[in-house]
Amino acid sequence: MKISRVRLALRILGILLILASIAIYAKSALTDFYTNAKQRQLHIEWKKEQEQSKKKQAKKMASAHKTNTSKEVATTTETAQVQHEPVPKGKPFARLVIPKIKLDVIVLQGTDEDILALGPGHMEDTEEPGEIGNVVISGHRVTYSHPFYYLNELQKGDVIYLYAKRRKFTYYVTEQKVVSPNDVSAIQATKDRTLTLTTCNPRYSAATRLIVIAKCKDKIAP
Question: Which H or E run contains 65?
Fold first, then answer.
């Protein structure tokens, strides 16, 4: 009788473990599906926004040519100011493309958990693409479609593209390192045009942080 009870208990335990595994897998699959769907939508919105922005700039430039020089200067200055207005929190900030790991995602403004559930997030109060200073982008590695899953495969010299402000900025990986979660040196301001990608490390753990640093060598726009 006791042996039968033990067997029954073990059988129930095995069933519960199987159900728990299925639940975990199902949750992961659902979150990945949700993030992928949102990213497809964000890509469509990003493309439309870039096209609309390009048309608006073309109209302003055409209008400037019809006015006198002073008004043209004013219009050009106004356009430049619009281009550098901060992106609202939770809105598309840039498009991040890393050919080496076949990544093409829309980066959102902010790093709150609900924002990172949609894709990588730009750390507020850090710089914008192409500008002097540090552009810091954080992303999940094993959940929510795991955009930074293969970040560890990047090596010195690998190319990273950031699309923002109707421009394409090219960065080249210069360093990869692992730091403690309390080490904030990688997200500090820099004296050159830096891009810093950060994610949890190792996979399925947040014991440390994986940092990839890249530098922009594009000419600075006038």
Answer: helix 2-65
